[in-house]
Structure formats: C-alpha cells, structure tokens
C-alpha cells in the first residue's frame, strides 16, 4: 500500500485528508515542517501533501529544515541504493536457481539419452546373436555351412553393423551437443547479470539435446 505524508498546521485539514485517503493509502501526518521531515526520513513516503503556506518562525528554524531536508535526501538515496542492490541480488539468485534447475533437467536428459544409446546397441547385438543362433540351429551337425546360410549370416552381421554405426553417429552428435551445453552453462555462470539472450542460448542447447 502506498504511503502518503500529510503536512498541515491545521488539525482540521489533516483530519479531513486522513478520512478521505485512509481507505486506499497508508497515511501519516505532521503539524509542522520539522515533524514532517523527521517522519519523511524515518518512513520515506511515496507522496507528500504539503501546505506551502505554513509559517516559518525564524531563520534558525529554516536552517534546521534545510538540515532535515539534507538528511531526507541522504536517507532516500541510501534506501534506493539498498533496494537496487537487494533487487539485483534477488534477481541474480533467481537466475542462478533457474540455471541449476535447467542443468539438473539437462543431466537427467543426458542420462536418459545415454541409456537409450547403450540399450539400443545392446538390443541390436542381442538380436544379431539370436538370428545367427537360429541359422546355426537349422544346420545339421554333419552338414557344412551352405552358401545360403553363409549369406544370411553375412546379411545379419552387415545389418547389425549398419544399425550400430547409426547409433554411433547419434552418440557423436549427442556428445557435441553436451559439450556445447556445458560451454553455455559455464558462460552463463560467469556473468553478473543474465540477459534474455543468455537464456535463449540455454534453452536452445537443451532443445538440441532433446532432439538428439
């Protein structure tokens, strides 16, 4: 809720404004300039409603007001600097958190893809073994390996090699994507502030992994 400081030497005016604004704003009141400046320094209002015709008793009082105004300025600058620093720290923390969440997701994806490649190769080899075993079982112990059986075995092994070569190429491509993703992560973590472009690169590297 926004805060409004009402400064007026007339109590009736102060009460009227408080009654008018209190439902939608946090109101603070001051009856003179000195009290107003003290309140402003301590609370930093979003808006000040000031009666510019309030009397100033003497030059000494006016000098005090100037001192309080200087304090107010310093206080506001300090608060603004602190808020900016806090905001940057919070933003950086959230960005790092997001990066690591994406990294964990990527690691999980890498493990899954690696498992698929390994199990795929194992499945191909196992299928080749079973196919060759079936051909061998069809051959009589006393018979020699026929040309037809030999060709069937050669076709099976050739098909197995081709499928494994395809998996090998996928593995190489996948490794390249992983290496690129690691470079993106390293680049991002070294930066003080992350831009939208940084996150686009991160998302792009993860998309390549998923596509692979």
UniProtKB/TrEMBL annotation:
<protein>
    <recommendedName>
        <fullName>Response regulatory domain-containing protein</fullName>
    </recommendedName>
</protein>
<dbReference type="Pfam" id="PF00072">
    <property type="entry name" value="Response_reg"/>
</dbReference>
<dbReference type="InterPro" id="IPR011006">
    <property type="entry name" value="CheY-like_superfamily"/>
</dbReference>
<dbReference type="GO" id="GO:0000160">
    <property type="term" value="P:phosphorelay signal transduction system"/>
</dbReference>
<dbReference type="InterPro" id="IPR001789">
    <property type="entry name" value="Sig_transdc_resp-reg_receiver"/>
</dbReference>
<feature type="domain" description="Response regulatory">
    <location>
        <begin position="3"/>
        <end position="121"/>
    </location>
</feature>
